[in-house]
Amino acid sequence: MASSVNIGEHNLKLAYDRYMRYLFIASALLLTVIIAAIIIFVGQQGLMTFTEVSPADFFLAGKWDPTEGKYGALSFILGSVYVTLLAVLLGAPLGLAGAVFMAKIAPPRLRDIMRPATDLYVAIPSVVYGFIGLTILVPYIRVQFGVNTGFGLLAAAAILAVMILPTIISISEDAIRSVPRALEEGSLALGATRWQTITGVILPAALPGILTSVILAMARAVGETMAVQMVIGNTPQIARSLFMPTSTLTSEIVVEMGNTPFGSAWGNSLFLMALVLLLLSLAMIVVIRRVAGERTA
Amino acid sequence: MPSFSYLASVSACWRAAGRAKPTSPSRRGGEIQGTVTASGSTALLPLLKPAQEEFQKLHAKVTVNIAGGGSFTGQNQVAAGSVNIGNSDVGLQDSLKSAGLVEHKLVGIPFVFIVNPGVAVDSLTPEQYVAIFSGKITNWKDVGGKDQAITIIHRAKSSGSRATIQEVVMKSASFTDNAVIQDSNGAVRAAIASTPGAVGYVDAAYVDQSVKGLAYNGVKFSLENVTGGKYPVYTFGRMYTKGQPTGAVKAFIDYATSKEFQEKYAEKQGFVPVTKMPK
Hints:
The complex is a heterodimer of chains A (297) and B (279). By secondary structure, chain A is an all-alpha fold. Chain A has helices at residues 2-47, 55-60, 74-105, 108-123, 126-145, 153-177, 181-189, 194-205, 207-223, 226-231, 249-257, 265-296, and strands at residues 64-65, 70-71. Chain A has 2 domains: 2-51; 56-296, Orthogonal Bundle (MetI-like fold), CATH 1.10.3720.10. Helix content of chain A is 77%, strand content 1%. With 279 residues, chain B is α/β, with parallel strands linked by helices. Chain B has helices at residues 4-20, 45-58, 71-80, 126-133, 160-170, 185-194, 223-227, 247-256, 259-265, and strands at residues 34-40, 62-69, 85-88, 101-115, 123-124, 151-154, 180-181, 198-203, 212-213, 215-216, 234-242, 272-273. Chain B is elongated, with a radius of gyration of 22 Å. Chain A binds chain B through residues 64-68, 134-135, 138-139, 142, 148-151, 229-230, 233-237, 245, 247, 254-256, 258-264, 266, and chain B through 70-73, 75-76, 93, 95, 149, 151, 153, 156-160, 174, 177-183, 187, 190-191, 194-195, 197-198.
């Protein structure tokens, strides 16, 4: 009697296991279907641009004037690339220094304060970053550098540099802390100073993790929309200086999407820009996987 | 040819009538019922919201649904028959010109050129506006101001405001690309207020003390100057229907464009009553 109850209970648990398994498989499938649907929809809509615009015109021409039939998106693509690289150039050394400080130099009590403080960066909505950029940074750049407006690559890159700090700091810090203690102790035992240990031993050992953090930060920077849109000037022209108003893929999409007829060449070309953006991000993810793979190998 | 939205609204009336029949067999003649759906321009929402509320008070059996989405969305959806009315503050896009849409002028939308308060100029001629916005004049000293670079701050290429200025002021000339683009009236005003030497344009309702309104060819913007035909920088907010409207849809459009409603609400929202606009 007692054993039959146990068998019943056991069967129930087995059934529960089985159904949970189906639930998880269904969740995984759903996720895959959603991401595939996004790529297919954006891709399909975007590629329809090429029925009216030649790829060479879209990718290699800088003149964007859809009402005149000119669909050159080069200024947006270059804008996105410039702003991302500049942001990393400004943000990565700063973030890396912060990570080294938090992982190896800061006393534990200070670290306990700095960690949550870094996480707070992530909690600030991007429109707040943009607003601060618009009201403080743009006028500051205008006055300091004596330029007309202050809108442009420098303002956008400076804002983005701050926005990507938490990504770089937290992932790099993890990488630095996971360097085996023996390496560090060996270096110190050989008479290396703390600075020599950090630059000669710890950072090289943590390099794959640091690179991962930089690439993730780039992915965040290239996709950031609101903050960039508010300070870059949104002008469809190729930037020839740090202070010239220009555009990125994201800022152009957000400014034009609301008023552009869906299904027209104009609307489709915005989807094509979204596809380019998606491919840029995907490429970065692939690179991250490569880099992260090297670490385990 | 009876259009889709016509059929939809009629069948909506029939369904409503069918439900109402058993309880009120002796329906009063002329009572309107049904559902009116509209989408499109967000700029017109502040005017359409009170129209919806007041209209539903007058006609308890009509439900009016109004959504935003942008002018082109409104045009596309009414052409596709998914709404009864498409609201738009720009003219029909080329691809819909033959879709059988009927335009109903809803309200006058005046625009005002604004500059940073530090700019000494008070009025410009149409030729000077064209020269500035096409990038031929780049310093205020060339139009009677002090020696200061001109910074153009205005709207994106897909903006209805920009399309209006293109049509009314620029005509065949094209805007220079060397300008800062902001994506709303409020953002344009804020950027102009904080940028020395900046010039742009906004819906008249957005002009405040933080910026200086410029006169157009010596005529300052005012309600009287618009209705008197002296101030030409305006466009119309329009409602599009597929074919001539009937039933509840027609009643709603008639109400929203009526003298009584227009004169009570339009000016309050920064528009000009369509009943007062120059013909």
